[in-house]
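Hallway conversation turned thread

IA: we were arguing at lunch whether anyone had actually written out LysR family transcriptional regulator end to end. Turns out nobody had. So, for the record, here is the sequence (292 residues) and right after it the structure tokens. Reply here if something looks off.
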Amino acid sequence: MISPDWNHIRAFLATAETGSLSAAARRLGLTQPTLSRQVAALEGDLGVLLFERLGRTLALTEAGHELLSHSRKMGAAADGLCLAATGQAQSIDGTVRITASDVMSAHVLPPVLHQLRQRAPRLTIDVVAANDIRDLMRREADIAIRHVRPEQPELIARLVQEATAHFYAAASYLARRGRPVSPADLANHDFVGFADVERSIAFMAPLGIALTPDNFRIRSTSGLASWELVKQGFGICPMMDDVAAITPGIERLVPGMDPIVFPVWLTTHRELHTSRRIRLVFDLLAEFFAAR
């Protein structure tokens, strides 16, 4: 019976999912020649050709397609094994990865990180500042702070805060363009776009703010960059009130306007929730947000 090396299967799986040896090597932290040798070794063990080269990319052969689903199951099993092992760890040391948006990572989390340093000085906290949703199942993070509730049954989610936001602009911008006094007035101003403009327009419409793409002449995929552009007087954007409160030179617009309310969900994997170090961080984060 053939018993292929798991490292060789992992190399095949990464190559199949990325479509190239170089990308697969980067994902696994290997050199390209090493990864290529591992794929070739698997082909030798199985006696089949798994890839064929099409220009600069690799395409799965029929045999490769046949083995891919089995390899993915093995990969999921390996991820589950790592999750279970991490869940059994009971020492307050090691690394805990927290993922949150770049704005929250930079402006909201530092006070609770100070508390964590005092509570567990041997613990290493890796803040993954990213505006996409990181995959807890693949251990890209141990704890996620999100504004939408995850749907996967393997995840534990706790609603820890109903945060608020308003529209803000720099005093320099308002001195130049005037201060809007109603939601409808905002349609006559420049906005600094963040993420998808069409979604932003759709979000603003029920608030009585009729915007078009022409309102978004400056935009960025980075929340930190967008907020900096607002500070520099390029236009208006909605922002968490907690962040705006600690930003000098910024004014809240249309004071009588109802706040934008959005949830803050704290999420981790069920297996990880039995880890003493991850439970400590999870509970401290929950207390921190609940007190805000």
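OS: looked through it. Residues 92-292 form a domain with the D-Maltodextrin-Binding Protein; domain 2 fold (CATH 3.40.190.290).
IA: good, adding that to the notes. The first helix runs from residue 6 to 18.
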